[in-house]
Amino acid sequence: MELRVLKYFLVVATERNISNAAKILFVSQPALSKQLKDLEKELGVILFKRGNRNITLTEDGVYFLAKAKEILSLVDITVTNLKQENIIGGEINIGAGESVQIKNIFKIISNMMKEYPNIKTNITSGNADDIILKLDNGLLDFAIIIGFIDKSKYEHLSLPWYDKWGLLVKKNNPLAKKDYILAEDLKNIPLIISKQIHTDTFLAEWLGKSIDDFNIVATFNLLYNASLMVKQNIGSVLCLDGIINTNESDLQFIPLNPELKVDLSIIWKKNQTFSNIAKKFLENLKTFIS
User: Fold this and answer.
1) Are 161 and 92 in contact (CB under 8 A)?
2) What average pLDDT does the chain have?
3) pLDDT exceeds 60 at position 160
């Protein structure tokens, strides 16, 4: 399978029209159609449902599109970094969960850019499950993880920062008058929690009972959207401090008591072959936290 054919497939899947895609790719429509049919034959699946004017992706086509994007992205990253081999430059690809402490990572990168102006930083945000999948697939150099993770198959470095858990509520909520939140305060109120793996277990230890014993009305993977649910009175969010700016807002963050902290760590694949700029980043990170 050639990368050229993958690029053809990507354009056709995006345009949903063979004629338009052929014009973009500067190839004839019959030649493009033949390339796609050969690709389907090679894979042994049907990628497209062909209509009179437009085409749509089959279930296999949707899956292949996601993987094709990852493959081509990895190729682009590799080529970019190889071109920068003789100078300190290229791309740093970092995945991170939502945490105000990520600002420290950006401080390091900002300082590096003064010395190495040919740096491009790509940040992928998401929950730990999504980030680790991209790390395993080679799309990220590093992943910054909040809380527990099995680090046995990764190289890792513990970071000297932590986040605090609390409850995000509307300021007109009776709980907003409290200085801190106790486990008993959460009984019978509508709660919104992260759907990240291990979150239930982690919170259950603090609560002293299963999270299923509480009134969970919604889940989220990015906190901003969850904060909009709070504003619409759907529930209150158990979350980390500092991610949502509650200044000049009708929301308020209240810490938990006893205090519940989570540590941060940075992980990368064992036997990882880093680009020169990724090596420099790791060196600077170690110096920064030492």
Assistant:
1) no
2) 88
3) yes
User: Cα separation of 218 and 233, whole Å?
Assistant: 12
Q: Are 261 and 162 in contact (CB under 8 A)?
A: yes
Rounded Cα distance between 82 and 87, Å, is 10
- DSSP H or E segment with residue 42: helix 29-43
- Measured at the CA of 110, the angle between CA 93 and CA 136, to 5 degrees, comes to 15
Q: Give the CA dihedral 215, 236, 167, 97, nearest 10 degrees.
A: 100
Model confidence over 254-281: pLDDT tens digits?
999 999 999 999 999 988 878 888 888 9
Contact 257, 180 (CB under 8 A): yes
Instruction: Please give the Cα distance from 233 to 191 (Å, whole number).
Output: 11
pLDDT per residue over 66-120, tens digit each?
888 888 877 776 776 666 555 566 789 999 988 999 999 999 999 999 988 888 8
